[in-house]
Amino acid sequence: MSGSFPMYGIKTNHRVCRKEESMNLILLSGGSGTRLWPLSNEVRSKQFIKLFKTKDGSRESMLQRVCRQISELGSDVAITVATSKAQVSAIHNQLGDRVSICAEPCRKDTFAAITLAAAFLHDVKKVPLHETVVFCPVDPYVESDYFKELRELHGLAEKGGANLSLLGIEPTYPSEKYGYIIPKDKKRVSTVLSFKEKPGAAQAKLYIGQGALWNAGVFAFQLGYILEKAGSLAAYTNYWDLYANYGALKENSFDYMIAEKEKHMQVMRFVGKWKDVGTWNTLTDTMDEEIVGNAVMDGMCKNVHIVNELDIPVLCMGLENAVISAGPDGILAADKERSSYMKPFIDQMKQQVMYAEKSWGTYHVLDVEQESLTIKVTLNAGEKMNYHSHGRRKEAWVVIAGSGKAVMDGIERHICAGDILVIRAGCRHMVAAETELKIIEVQIGKEISVRDKQKYPEEV
Amino acid sequence: MSGSFPMYGIKTNHRVCRKEESMNLILLSGGSGTRLWPLSNEVRSKQFIKLFKTKDGSRESMLQRVCRQISELGSDVAITVATSKAQVSAIHNQLGDRVSICAEPCRKDTFAAITLAAAFLHDVKKVPLHETVVFCPVDPYVESDYFKELRELHGLAEKGGANLSLLGIEPTYPSEKYGYIIPKDKKRVSTVLSFKEKPGAAQAKLYIGQGALWNAGVFAFQLGYILEKAGSLAAYTNYWDLYANYGALKENSFDYMIAEKEKHMQVMRFVGKWKDVGTWNTLTDTMDEEIVGNAVMDGMCKNVHIVNELDIPVLCMGLENAVISAGPDGILAADKERSSYMKPFIDQMKQQVMYAEKSWGTYHVLDVEQESLTIKVTLNAGEKMNYHSHGRRKEAWVVIAGSGKAVMDGIERHICAGDILVIRAGCRHMVAAETELKIIEVQIGKEISVRDKQKYPEEV
């Protein structure tokens, strides 16, 4: 159970200093998520959309579902979410303080993200280099048996039989979007003969004929393994240094950079329910309900799913194999299979983000004019905005629900529904919610921009 | 050209007192229009939706198109629009003062509407009883040859060869929604043997076998004819009396009440382009463009039409024979043929009207909360609101574009973009637009209702 650990020149005896069953699990929360437009956008990835019914009848997101499933494994699993800066607010909002967050300063694909998260674990969370960690995508649709197997994979990787341990999925068709793992044998755990990331369909078919498995995107290894690999590719001293020089890291996937090249890998077959819900076609397959939100369909609809986040109703009649989704960013009406090819269409839209979930609540753009922007801001109870000012716009705030306090140029006042605040350009202001606070904010000015914001230290 | 006119006991020589070619044409603008939801609603019927491309590239509504076509016939056609109170603003807004409007105090089907319009023509517009008038639905999709034929029908009816003159359309299938006219012969103008309103499909098939024509909904007759008929069914003395007692009139269609019973009818065959655009299926058939509004479709879409009145984009992929329509009231995604059966679904929605066109401009509901309502009001240049107050709500007005003046409790002030007005409950107020004025209005109160409005005489 102990051994020579060549990386970083450290000798390890890795089970001595730790509680028997504890595990560091890193959830990779990535993706700008255009493939689930209009519900996903630059700041709101698919893992944050609340589509899954819970036992109490409310709905949870993929992220919340996965974290709930992991927590059901036991409280000794420490979750770190590796993500981008843009997602930090949404993660805090959905999970509170239950997880650590390692945020990339910019998007750099999975090799860099995993390296940064590894350095974060080591330098910030003080996880020893010899400790085995499990990286796992946040977006597979799975049951709790999956996370039990991750724990098993963790134990397996800890034994040191390979540098890198993978989870293999029985392929159902020669998909071009997965990595293919060729195992040595058909046993539950096998040495990996080779790994090929995203082959063409013909090649994938050949691999499947050779008994290949899909790579589930799960990687288990000792922390020092990746830090040493990364250290040989880019010079850095610790997490903070890596963070500061993150832009210089190579932008490529972990699969190409590491998995394809590693000689000592093992794979564990997972035979439970596993679905990659990256597209509407696959996502709707996992939904318990045909309709989420305000919608009606007639009896002639077959295999239709409607997800409506708008206040206005959707009526669907006589369609087959279709997905209808409406949100503040737009409306999709598509054949389910065709919807998988939406990316270029979304890219060409280049539209303003109309809705966002923040750590403090949400905002929703209600109206856009040449020289005005009307938004609805919902501030969760107990939350507050930064103290800030705008140089080139005036704002009118109309409190429509809840209560709290506002500070304007240092003067504090209590606010509640019906109050109207006029914030001239240059006025320092903030709001704090006592109860959930809803505000209609009308911004007026010749140059309205999210960049026109000056922050100040806390006033109160 | 003259003759004994039994109705009202009047002897007529009906071409003496009139300009040779002048004609009174009454457009029947009816319908709550749920079959074109979400673009039509209680206050916005299909004839007001701007879907048809004009020569200059802008778009016109069915109503505007029909009136333009009629005006191209010559300036001697006097148009009266027979409609409901709810449509008066929209008609003024789209047509200005070019037409007379006869508004029913409540909906009572076509018999009552035609009777009221006839009384309006006689008592308000002083049209003599012996004069021939032509009633015509506002919503057939036709070319200008249709209106030339209406003039011909008018001339034919004037000759007095029948009490009631109809326009017949060659049927294309045994529809259950039209009246069937059985002509005596196949000549262009024929005596009518019988008329049967909306038979079942089997009966319609039999009629078609007998050479029947569809009734186009056009009725030409001398004004006294219907007034005498109506007088025998309900006691009234003139237009104002009829208006005051309108609720007592029988609610039935002109077709059942009059056309089915009339023995002396003639029909003129119309062979030009004629389409009843009462459903999405038929309406999209007349559209020159596949897309109206902000929308994109992929190359796999076949026979798809998108009409989007919202600011957010619509993406449609891989659908066939479908119509997608989005407006402030909701979103439709439907097989074109199935969409004809939407009425019961719309009726069950019972939703707040989110958008309306008024004589002074438009309003658009942006947000609805328990105790607040946020709307965007656009007041056309030169227009103004009534002077009014609300007893149980406060309003915040934020001017986001344009300029004008506001009066609050008798005090006048100039307003422009950036101004914020707070109108407490009970405060008398009005706004007048110099240039097009856009206002975000936030209503706040425990009981927000359109009925909470007290009007006052003009203050300024």
Description:
2 copies of one chain form a homodimer. With 460 residues, chain A is of the alpha+beta class. The first copy, chain A, has 10 helices and 32 strands. A 6-stranded antiparallel sheet of chain A has the order 22-23-24-31-26-29. A 5-stranded mixed β-barrel of chain A has the order 10-13-11-12-14. A 4-stranded mixed sheet of chain A has the order 16-18-20-21, with helices on one face. In chain A, helix 3 crosses helix 6. Chain A is globular and about 70 Å long. Chains A and B meet through strand 19, strand 20, strand 21, helix 10 and strand 23 of A and strand 19, strand 20, strand 21, helix 10 and strand 23 of B.
Question: Which features does this protein show?
Answer:
homodimer, alpha+beta, six-stranded antiparallel β-sheet, 460 residues, five-stranded mixed barrel
**What structural category do the secondary elements of chain A indicate?**
alpha+beta
The parts of chain A where pLDDT drops under 50 for at least 5 residues are 1-20
Question: What's the total count of β strands of chain A?
Answer: 32
Helical content band of chain A: 10-25%
Mean pLDDT of chain A: 88
Would you spell out the secondary-structure blueprint of this structure?
2 copies of one chain form a homodimer.
Chain A: E1 3-4, E2 11-12, E3 23-28, E4 50-53, E5 59-61, H1 62-71, E6 77-84, H2 88-95, E7 100-104, H3 109-123, E8 132-137, E9 140-142, H4 144-158, E10 164-169, E11 179-183, E12 189-197, H5 201-209, E13 213-222, H6 223-233, H7 239-244, H8 254-259, E14 265-270, E15 274-276, H9 280-286, E16 291-292, E17 295-297, E18 302-308, E19 314-317, E20 320-327, E21 330-335, H10 343-349, E22 355-358, E23 361-369, E24 372-379, E25 387-389, E26 394-401, E27 403-408, E28 411-416, E29 420-423, E30 429-433, E31 437-444, E32 454-456
Parallel strand pairs in A: 3-6, 3-8, 6-7, 10-14, 16-18, 17-19, 18-20
Antiparallel strand pairs in A: 1-2, 4-5, 8-13, 9-15, 10-13, 11-12, 11-13, 12-14, 20-21, 22-23, 23-24, 24-31, 25-32, 26-29, 26-31, 27-28, 27-30
